[in-house]
Amino acid sequence: MSDWTETYRPTTLSEVRGNNKARDQLREWAETWDDHRKAVIVHGSPGVGKTSAAHALANDMDWPVMELNASDSRGADVIERVAGEASKSGTLTAGGSGRRLVILDEADNFHGNADYGGSREVTRVVKSANQPIVLVANEFYDMSQSLRDACETIEFRDVSKRSIVPVLRDICRREGVEFEEEALEKIAEDTSGDLRSAVNDLQAVAEEAERLTVEDVVTGERDTTEGIFDFLDALIKEEDARGALYASYDVDETPDDLLNWIEDNVPKDYRGAELADAYGFLANADRWLGRVRATQDYSFWRYATDNMTAGVAASRREPKGGWTRYGPPSYWSKLGRTKGTRNTRDAIAERIAEREGTSVATARREILPFLSAMTHHCKNRELTVRMAATYELDEGEVSFITGSGKTTNKVESIVADAAERREERTVEHSGSAFFGGESTDDEDGGDGDDQQSLEAVAADSESSDADPDGTDDEPDDDQSGLSDFM
Amino acid sequence: MFKAIVSAETLTSALDSVSVLVDECKIHLEEEGLEIRAVDPANVGMVDLSLEAAAFESYEADGGLIGVDLSRLEDIAGMADSGQLIQLELDEETRKLHIQIDGLEYTLALIDPDSIRQEPDIPELDLPARVVLEGKDVNRSVTAADMVSDHIALGVDEGEEFFYVDAEGDTDDVHLELTREDLIDLQVGPAHSLFSLDYLKDMNKAIPGDAEVTLDLGEEFPVKIYFGFAEGLGQVTYMLAPRIQSD
After folding, report:
1. Burial class for A148, CB neighbours closer than 10 Å (0-12, 13-18, 19+)
2. CATH of the structural domain B2-115, one choice from 3.40.50.10840, 3.70.10.10, 3.40.720.10, 3.40.50.970
3. Which of A111, A140, A156 is the last residue of a domain?
4. What pLDDT digit, counting tens, does each position of B95-132 carry?
């Protein structure tokens, strides 16, 4: 059985339901396109008929259509080649004076990896187009400012129940399905403004039943996602334990994120003992999340969610009311702000760990604080220079450990001294290496510098054996050295 | 039912001339030969190809329709050495195409023709000017223009009676004039249109250097390019919509 949303897709604009004003705007935009030559953004919730309207418009105007939707690959190069060419070229039937409608579906979604550079290319195409372009989008503000400015805007509103019912009735008549009026109203109500879902639901139910009744419809209720702010309001002010837990099922956040949201917003309404209780449950939830991380057993999530939702709701002792300004977790913005500092700290810790043979965590937790205390404000200059030399620290890192300003003369001179010291030490080391190499040079006439020091070691062990031929190896020497063959 | 044996060259040139515009296409297996019609995703370029049954070593078909992934089929055809024969046979049961090149057997899964872009209607165009020239002159024009620009103007000067190619870049220009002597034939009429070089470059790849190429041109109208291959038993027609000349 074919998809009813396809079968009953409007073929002309006059069949587009529920958005008469937007529909007329779209028609007017097309009819006056030759004068303004601007692209148009058609935006609104999913399933209200935006794409259908664009295709119906093309049909009405007798314009051929070029459509790029989310299922096509939409990298910048494809957009330039396909949409760019389509928007600059005339048509095959009428040449340069012929119009073509370019439809860019889901225009708010030109980002992510596959579409890298896509949104910028779309803006370019829109600005240099010689053909009418319709951009279809769900979220108007997900598109860049420059793109929004370059286009006219038409909003498609959610389709009202009053408009959905006649559409469903019409389809039922044409499909020969008997129905109860209330059943259609129930479908229309459940889908809250989404005409496409309403038609899909109708088809799903009608395929099962001979005659459509309200009881049939009840089976197919739709999941909707609830916004996080509505959920917080319900959790903190209204719902009981069970209600809060159920409400959380419709929220599209992981327990880890949800915990942050709740934890940050609960103190805005809870006071005193109830707040203490709430935090007790949040702490439990956090422990469960820790267990999830440790064991990778995600079935523990349920206990975390129970605690953070039902627990918090059950802790409420005073009735809450009014409006509270909830905000995103400050933990996130803090992470963002401290990112640079944390990176510096980890970079230093890694170098210390490598040098001292500890783990990075130990270096960070146990060594770094001592270094910090010992070199506080570079008071012990000699020690600070030695530290900077040993761990090869730059100005930023020295300033991070000592707490002195990064651009001060003090820090700069320490780093300079440290660099000098490092150089000296390198020369010292290589000096002895060269020296050792030279002593054996005459015997085996080695070649490369690095190789020489290795040979020197090998030659030393050989000479101590007092075996000039080297035929009789040490008994425990299973592995031959490179120099054995030179 | 479809069963045919064809030389590698003929099959490759047929496939190449379609694959410059689309990745997948429908092939009509008519009694008198193969037919392919396709339009590119941007709706700017179109190809209409026919290959007569006589171009095949042997050919049997009764009007089926198959959908193929062109690059796959091209790869397979590329396995054959020049002069080798390729044997094609459609398995109606499994909807697969059995391809045999000497001992090499390849079974190609076909694409549901309904899932491929609709075939275009060939528009009836009344194009006043006609230029007939050698494939290598087309190649020369396109290559020269490509050095300076991404679009190219093709036109006919009615007074002086010559065909011209213009490409204007940001800094450099290319201009080429071909008079009656340089051309095989010229039918003078009002003609001047701008075209995308990307498309012409691709189409040019499919045009053999020694082919006799006919260009039908108009003023701000699509160009029709046609030429024969496989000793005249195959015919390719390209149509390309003009760029809109912005002011």
Report:
1. middle
2. 3.70.10.10
3. A156
4. 899 999 988 999 999 999 888 888 888 888 889 999 99
